[in-house]
């Protein structure tokens, strides 16, 4: 049985996508769908205009099953947490700090031990862009909007094309279409495999701090694509640059990363190399702040002017 959240203890995200905020006071009326006990992230995004899509009140998003450490609880239902699965050494060595509704958390285990004869295949990851967890095979939806890269624990064998999985805060297993999950990889992926996952987000709306199949930002796209393969990268672009290996420009290959910064400023943007450079032409897939969507394009002149390097994960 779950116990109450406690400061200094771990908790687990119990909703498909929980938004991490800079402060409770920073939220806007348009953000109400994302704050509900069962957050409706698509409705939240649909209700925003282009200016609201880049409001810096949003820091990041956490997926179902992510572990956090609770550092403060408020009487009005807010919890300050450290998201340990999103490294942010410049902010806190333990992970990304921020605020979210306490109702989006549970104290139950994130990845309980799988039961049954297939326990060796316990670790699963969502490979569909978005899926849902059901109360029974072909049964009603219990949790909708479960995002690519979400880790789940198997709860038994597949049955008629459905897989039983554990979900945080749920006593009984839920069911996911078997084709929507794969075993969590145990080997380092090829960069082109990561690029192929990121390409599935093409044309997705840009949301500052977004990291889901409903809306995403530049570093969120990189973080989420690598998470699908069990690799944890920092959340922000400048931190991703610090944790990756610089290359000589011209040596980059598809799946590597381009980083951008203005003179005298820290890195502010990241894109994924989409083709090998030819004749000075460079192309990348990225969540574009200016176009407000994920695009694959040749680097325009303003991007070339701020390109500070290519890196390999």
TrEMBL record:
Q: Which domain of life is it from?
A: Bacteria
GO process annotations (BP)? proteolysis
Citing just one GO molecular function, the answer is: cysteine-type peptidase activity
Question: What are the NlpC/P60 domain coordinates in residue numbering?
Answer: 188-313
| Keywords carried by this UniProt record | Hydrolase, Protease, Thiol protease
Q: What Pfam families does UniProt report for this protein, alphabetically?
A: NLPC_P60 (PF00877)
| InterPro entries named in the record | NLP_P60_dom, Papain-like_cys_pep_sf, Peptidase_C40
Is Plastid tagged as a keyword?
no
The answer, when asked if Protease is one of the entry's keywords, is yes
Q: Which family does it belong to?
A: Belongs to the peptidase C40 family.
State the name under which the record lists this protein: Cell wall-associated hydrolase, NlpC family
Q: Which organism is it from?
A: Micromonospora inositola
The top of its lineage is: Bacteria, Bacillati, Actinomycetota, Actinomycetes, Micromonosporales
